[in-house]
């Protein structure tokens, strides 16, 4: 950081109660009142009036020639800035830097310490310091720009804000290979001495700025069209991490100290500006960042427009998400469950609307099919993660599980695992809820290993187990590793054997009758080798099996009027 030292005399200002005085043998003849402080000074003996055009005019208007009292309550920068100017006039040593330049410059302009009053005056020296030191430096420009927050109107009128922004943006657009100044970069694993300057070297330093100044920087950068949208997105990401709350670490509202309205309003303003400044290019920010912003928006009660935009942007990049990107705690005081499953449901709904609107007739190898299959895998993996929440209601699980179209799941193994985890964590679930939970499960889309597990799973509703058994019986012969004779599977259920047999018979009869109703021609299921031998033993004299006789009877019935 650059400094400028002016004056040579030691500091002789001292405080007595609410009065600031200068050690001097000469009695004071000028009183400056600022806020609640009185400055006892001298008009001519120490060049105060000769250097300050405003004080010259005010003293000239005074009727009292012996002692003049002037009120300067509206001086920019207050008493600290005035004291810097006064010490300069007295020749007392002062140190100027990016931290106090703005207040000193505004106060000097206010007091009219210009060249028109005296050659080589304070304003001229401050302008030289600003041009040759502050604007040349990277961090000096940022610090100076940040200090303009307290004197925004004065800083704008004097051109300080514009010139600082121009200097900062100019350095940001400098090729990384030509960056020679110091910068802050605290990414893990980065070594300044051993590695080249990263492209996003500037993002951490500008995150120190107030949100309105940060917005001006981003607008200026975007207007040049010289940086890729990913770099601008990274700057927004760094700023959000610096100033917005981390919703993954916030406890429930009822067990934590709530934020003040002022803090919440500030966070909401930051959030909405960041969302508004995200480049429109897809991939300019990660889907994980978008989802985090959406979680923060829910927590802060952001506007509907902001939430809708985040849901839309997140759904466009949902394929890039991982399960960890979707896991956010719920911050609603009315919800007893931990995870914010409504957030995921909203993004999924938006994705499906877009997918249905843009996808052609689905075929196995198209990008649209691969896209929906990837989302299906993601959703089922997410359900496995949230199923461990003991307070998560069945309705919330179903709202996500049933939102996906059938073609989204090539198999139902991951869905089965999610259901099994949920049943394990909710042992007191009613039979009706168990049936609701399993109604989306398609036994024909389960792998042999999962079907083996399902048949022996005591947590599943009876109807689901019977469906698995029926499918196994219909499927016929299979590899030895996965061979499951129905009788053996029934024995594994113990006391439920009679009920299972009855349910299985109903399923067989229902399937047979449904086949007749569909086209009037009953279809013979594929038989195993053992069932073929049994049919040969039951052959009638007319060489027809009972099933074949039934087929013929069914055909006569259909010809007679049908079902």
Automatic annotation (TrEMBL):
Boundaries of every NPH3 domain copy: 200-475
Question: InterPro entries, alphabetically?
Answer: NPH3/RPT2-like (IPR043454), NPH3_dom (IPR027356), SKP1/BTB/POZ_sf (IPR011333)
Gene label: LOC105111938
SUPFAM superfamilies named in the record = POZ domain
Q: What is this protein called?
A: BTB/POZ domain-containing protein At5g47800-like isoform X1
Please give the pathway this protein is involved in.
Protein modification; protein ubiquitination
Q: Where is the composition biased (Basic and acidic residues)?
A: 531-563
Q: Which family does it belong to?
A: Belongs to the NPH3 family.
Q: Does the keyword GTP-binding apply?
A: no
Q: Where is this region: Disordered?
A: 515-563
Q: Which UniProt keywords apply?
A: Ubl conjugation pathway
